[in-house]
């Protein structure tokens, strides 16, 4: 049974904009990141990485490295425990420990450039790097495959010889196809055949990276009692613990993970990379070992999001109603199975009600880094294809595409592409806000000399998730409350959690002191990802705060010698139901707790089934320089159903950040691959992400359709906003130059080609 | 009676139909009854006595967190979809 809540509007704390608790530490440099960490006796670890994307390892000679002064440990794949070939539920996503282990350290074959083949620990980083260069590896180089088309060709080199693919439930061997899934509902062929208007188009996208500023890092101690302590930058300490324990084949109780401050993740810091390696180096050297990744390795070896190929076909009747749709989606998994075909299938048609649909998805192994989640994983790709196709269908049929979206909008009871019915959603309200927005109704205006101007829009969707969170509260004698949580704070969630508690207790957000703690100090908490933290951990805070109120009523009962049932609590004041003038404030009561039973604490635990789907729509104006092909974004508006905005500044920030990442993905970003499987642009100089100098202010319109599944109406907001920008820009480019682009990035070269 | 929307890959066990009705109190009982009616289906849904990793069961509008113990109300829709993930 899922609890539902009536929306409220008379909040005291919710909806305000207090300064985040970690703000001063962040801007003054006091916040402790993994790179800052030091321990007594700390030594450095580095990896020896393959220069080849696909090769057999014929031999590894570590003797010269081991003989160097200052070198305390050298390991290879032979030091890695044999992990289980079994898919294990991480709560959010899954991990196969065998593949995860193989990704960290090659055994007898390297399958992506930068694949670690050995690791060295030494007294300092420079000694470790020099020793790493002395490790001699003999390779038999194999032909690499770096895209889905080549990987599925009949004569393609096989990346993982022992891979057993799943083709609609049937086992397949000697293949790079890890999985083929299908969703099909209704009479797709019949509806498509009788459609008055149809369109079929192919879209191709390149792999892109999350681009977080802070590098991956880990510090590990494997002590004499076989306890493993890890300090790391992670989106989920408990998910990291599960992976580390599984890869090292130890019980989870042997592993303690302390999440340090995190400098961006966007999904890319859910998998572990260095943690198990640092732990094995620590066991061998009997010293704490620290590892910090370099940018080239981050690009070459840590989870980007898949590139791939998509074919969309749409059918509509003469009245502009969608009647049928098909989607064929091939995604790069990277060097191990497991791309985001499933979420892509869930998202592709989500903004539209379409009675007859089919989706086929293929997960394809290639000689590139294993992909990881990236902000609405899978959804931006299919949004690019679907929203481009919708716009082109409207162009060809002569329909107004805003009205088309309204006429075909998803609402409560609409069936998603995977068959699941939507509950209360806000896509209609988003479209209404977009249609009435200043941006949509403003004239496009004339472009500067030598430029062409265009406007585009597109919708986006992410389903959002709930899952497990746990928090603890304790009242301090000065009337403040300590809040202990297990959700790493990436986007300002500490203050959002404090606000959840403060609203219930009738105190200020800064009267609640939030801390993110290690895996031994709080109950299991799933990752900060899936747009779940404010929703689920916030819900746990609300439960804990209400339990604290119940506990404090008992203490007031002792003070006034009455039953707790005879006490009311509102806006931070306890009062006697029988004698209304008898009151005591939260802070005053906190100071008396020592004589009223001692410490007052509470715990909030949740495991939430659903979170409330998130829909948005973006509008963008662009200018294209017809001499250079350069695209300038001149106006951008992000509109989204956010449920209730707990802290509007950080909700706006999520919309703006998602939009910026989507703009970069649309216009510039790509893994530019050489034929040998190496990435040609593995630095921020060549991998061009937008900066503030490239962008106008991103306007936001927060549509608040309270989510009935959350006590304050929260919907996850972080992922939806990366989905619309890519198709919105594609639609704007088509509007500006009269030619449509079907591949990303839609960079200056592509535009010059289109113009010519 | 629960309305089970069969994943495409499992429809071959049930003669190609999209949807079947099944009387069951829990998700575990429902899967057992599916197996009895359409042998071969269960191994795609259950591993080691739990829902197969990578698979989520949506009961009504919500992805259940109770696994095979999930209670089923009359006429509720049951879907088996890819387990959720996010960034």
What does the model show?
The complex is a heterodimer of chains A (756) and B (87). Chain A has 756 residues and is α+β, with helices and mostly antiparallel strands. Chain A is 27% helix and 26% strand. Among the domains of chain A are: 23-31 and 465-608, Aldehyde oxidase/xanthine dehydrogenase, molybdopterin binding domain (Aldehyde Oxidoreductase, domain 4, 2-Layer Sandwich); 40-143 and 216-292, Aldehyde oxidase/xanthine dehydrogenase, a/b hammerhead (Aldehyde Oxidoreductase, domain 3, Alpha-Beta Complex), CATH 3.90.1170; 432-463 and 614-756, 2-Layer Sandwich (Aldehyde Oxidoreductase, domain 4), CATH 3.30.365.10. The longest helix of chain A is centred in the last third of the chain and has 28 residues, at 533-560. The model of chain A has no long low-confidence stretch (mean pLDDT 96). Chain B starts with a strand and ends in a 5-residue tail after the last strand. Chain B has one domain (2-82): Ubiquitin-like (UB roll) (Roll), CATH 3.10.20.30. Chain B is 13% helix and 29% strand. Chain B is built from 1 helix and 7 strands, in the order ββαβββββ. A 5-stranded mixed sheet of chain B has the order 2-1-7-5-6, with helices on one face. Chain B has a two-stranded antiparallel sheet with strand order 3-4. Chain A binds chain B through residues 2, 86-89, 92-94, 168-169, 181-185, 210, 265-268, 340-343, 345-346, 373-377, 418-423, 462-467, 527, 529-532, 607-610, 718-719, and chain B through 5, 7-10, 12, 18, 44, 52-54, 58, 60-65, 77, 79, 81-87.
């Amino acid at each position: 049974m899922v609890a539902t809540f009536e929306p409220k509007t008379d909040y005291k704390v919710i909806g305000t904009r207090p300064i985040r608790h970690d703000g001063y530490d962040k801007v003054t440099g006091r916040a402790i990141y993994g790179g800052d960490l030091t321990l007594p006796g700390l030594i450095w670890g580095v990896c020896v990485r393959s220069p080849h994307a696909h090769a057999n390892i014929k031999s590894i000679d570590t003797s010269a490295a081991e003989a160097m002064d200052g070198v305390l440990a050298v390991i290879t794949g032979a030091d890695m425990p044999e992990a289980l070939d079994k898919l294990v539920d991480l709560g959010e996503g899954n991990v196969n420990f065998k593949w995860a282990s193989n990704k960290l350290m090659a055994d007898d074959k390297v399958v992506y450039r930068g694949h670690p083949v050995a690791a060295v620990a030494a007294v300092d980083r420079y000694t470790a790097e020099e020793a790493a260069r002395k490790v001699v590896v003999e390779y038999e180089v194999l032909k690499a495959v770096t895209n889905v088309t080549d990987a599925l060709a009949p004569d393609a080199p096989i990346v993982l010889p022992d891979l057993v693919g799943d083709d609609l439930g049937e086992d397949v061997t000697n293949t790079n196809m890890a999985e083929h899934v299908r969703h099909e509902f209704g009479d797709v062929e019949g509806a498509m055949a009788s459609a008055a208007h149809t369109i079929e188009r192919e879209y191709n996208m390149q792999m892109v990276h999350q681009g977080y500023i802070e590098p991956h890092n880990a510090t590990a101690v494997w002590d004499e009692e076989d306890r493993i302590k890890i300090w790391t930058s992670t989106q989920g300490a408990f998910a990291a613990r599960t992976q580390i324990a599984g890869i090292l084949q130890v019980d989870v109780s042997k592993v303690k993970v302390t999440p340090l401050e995190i400098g961006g993740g966007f999904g890319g810091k859910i998998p572990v990379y260095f943690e198990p390696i640092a732990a094995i180096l620590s066991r061998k050297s009997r010293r704490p070992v620290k590892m910090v990744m370099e940018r080239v390795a981050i690009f070459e070896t840590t989870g980007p999001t898949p590139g791939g190929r998509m074919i969309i076909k749409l059918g509509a009747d003469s009245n502009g109603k969608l009647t049928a749709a098909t989607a064929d989606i091939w995604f790069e998994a990277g060097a191990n199975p497991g791309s985001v075909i499933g979420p892509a299938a869930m998202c592709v048609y989500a903004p539209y009600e379409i009675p007859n649909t089919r989706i086929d998805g293929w997960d394809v192994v290639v000689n590139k880094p294993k992909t990881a989640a990236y902000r609405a994983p899978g959804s931006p790709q299919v949004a690019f294809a679907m929203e481009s196709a919708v716009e082109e269908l409207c162009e060809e049929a002569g329909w107004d595409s805003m009205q088309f979206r309204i006429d075909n909008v998803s609402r409560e009871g609409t069936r998603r592409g995977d068959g699941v019915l939507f509950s209360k959603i806000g896509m209609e309200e988003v479209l209404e806000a977009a249609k009435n927005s200043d941006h949509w109704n403003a004239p496009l205006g004339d472009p500067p000399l030598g430029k062409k101007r265009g406007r585009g829009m597109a919708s986006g969707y992410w389903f959002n998730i709930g899952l497990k969170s746990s928090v603890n509260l304790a009242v301090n004698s000065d009337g403040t409350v300590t809040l202990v949580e297990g959700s790493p704070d990436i986007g300002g969630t500490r203050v959002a959690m404090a606000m959840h508690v403060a609203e219930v207790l009738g105190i200020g957000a800064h009267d609640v002191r939030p801390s993110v703690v290690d895996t031994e100090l709080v109950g299991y908490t799933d990752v900060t990802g899936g747009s779940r933290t404010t929703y689920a951990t916030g819900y746990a805070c609300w439960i804990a705060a209400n339990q604290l109120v119940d506990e404090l009523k008992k203490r007031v009962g002792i003070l006034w010698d009455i039953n707790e049932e005879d006490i009311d609590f509102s806006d931070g004041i306890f009062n006697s139901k029988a004698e209304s003038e008898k009151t005591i404030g939260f802070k005053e009561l906190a100071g008396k707790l020592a004589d009223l039973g001692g410490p007052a604490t509470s715990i909030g635990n949740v495991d939430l089934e659903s979170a409330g789907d998130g829909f948005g729509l973006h509008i963008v104006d662009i200018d294209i320089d017809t001499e250079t092909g350069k695209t300038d974004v001149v106006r951008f508006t992000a509109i989204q159903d956010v449920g209730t905005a707990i802290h509007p500044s950080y909700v706006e920030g999520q919309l703006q950040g998602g939009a910026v990442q989507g703009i970069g993905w649309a216009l510039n970003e790509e893994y530019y691959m050489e034929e040998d499987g190496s990435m040609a642009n593995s630095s921020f100089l060549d991998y061009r992400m937008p900066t503030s100098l490239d962008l106008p202010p991103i306007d936001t319109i927060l549509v608040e359709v309270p989510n009935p599944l959350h006590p304050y109406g929260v919907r996850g907001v972080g992922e939806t906003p990366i989905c619309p920008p890519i198709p919105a820009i594609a639609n704007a480019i088509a509007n500006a130059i009269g030619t449509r682009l079907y591949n990303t990035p839609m960079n200056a070269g592509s535009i010059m080609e289109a113009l010519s | 009676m629960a309305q089970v929307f069969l994943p495409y890959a499992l429809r071959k066990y049930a003669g190609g139909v999209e949807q079947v009705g099944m009387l069951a109190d829990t998700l575990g009982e429902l899967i057992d009854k599916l197996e009895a009616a359409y042998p071969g289906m269960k191994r795609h849904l259950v591993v080691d006595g739990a829902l197969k990793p990578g698979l989520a069961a949506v009961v009504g509008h919500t992805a259940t967190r109770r696994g095979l113990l999930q209670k089923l109300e009359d006429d509720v829709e049951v879907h088996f979809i890819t387990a959720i993930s996010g960034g």
